[in-house]
Amino acid sequence: MAKRVIAHLDCDAFFASVELQRRPELRGLPVIVAGSGPRAVVTTASYEARKFGIGSAMSAAEAKRRCPQAITIPPDHQAYSEKSREVWDLVREEIEILQQASIDEAYADLSAIERPLPFLRAIIARVKEQTGIQISAGIAPNRLVAKIASDLGKPAGFVAIGREQCAAHVASRSPRIVPGIGPKTAQRLAEMGYPTLGALQNAPVEELQERFGERYGHDLHRRAHLHDSSPVETERVRKSRSVETTFDVDIADHAELESVLRGQANKLAGQLRRAEERGRTIGIKVRLDDWTTVTRARSIDRHVHDEATIIEIALELFRDYAPPRPVRLLGVRVASFEGEEPPARTEPSPRGVLPGQLVLPLAAELLR
Q1: Selected catalytic residue, list 94, 105, 114, 307
Q2: Which end of the chain is more exposed for a tag (fewer CB within 10 A), N or C?
Q3: CATH architecture classification, 1-161
Q4: Whole-model pTM?
């Protein structure tokens, strides 16, 4: 069986990099990209800002406390989308099997390439030259390891590593380093006596299944050892569309919240019509001021994209739930599009610094 060679490509500090191209006088300074509201969060930060412990999803207020001299730039999503298209169009010219995972990252299957490492280096150099965007790459036998590897050498990283080597190298880190293991799961694992990935690797699978359920317990055991057989898919099918709003101030007035829902449904219906998509499952998402998050959904017997139907069902779901506390976030969603087959049940999908340019000996043998 041929060896799999999977690469994870990740644009370094993407939003900040785009902004610094437009504002070269800010190079070398701590820059954060964030909104201006009281609940604004950091979308990305330059590496100079990251030295102060600033990271994505941190509140903008906390980022300014950590680094008062940081320069805040409001996000320009249109500019980021345009630069993203420019980057990935170039990559697609060279790589046939490419799956874009987000605006700034993608997976590539290089198994059929005779010399994948120099091939990939040349593509990254071309992207840097033509777009100004630096890509860090992780190259491994599967997607999960490649994702971890791309972070190990940032910025401008190029890390090729085997599964067993990677599992040993990051054994002292929190299990959160593994895609698909979130903060709540990591906390529960720590309470069980497994605060590190190495400890989790030695956990009996039966114990994990007893605590997390048979399927997810088994998945955690596999994930701890960095096993992953998921393919790189060249087409990503959209499963749903949604519109959400996070309020600057929590809202308790149900009439005001219903007005927001109507506006969201109007916007969502417009998106569906432009995309020529219809769905038969309509849902809402409500996050209360204590961060309790509730979702409600209803499926109907026809596929729709009209505003009236979306509003009617969203309001019924909202009124049935009747939020008992002020609302922090509200959203409406349409799913189950035409032509979509019922989804098969699957296991949950994946979610010391190495030098930037690194190919470990076993990995070199694996990837040669």
Answers
A1: 105
A2: N
A3: 2-Layer Sandwich (3.30)
A4: 0.68
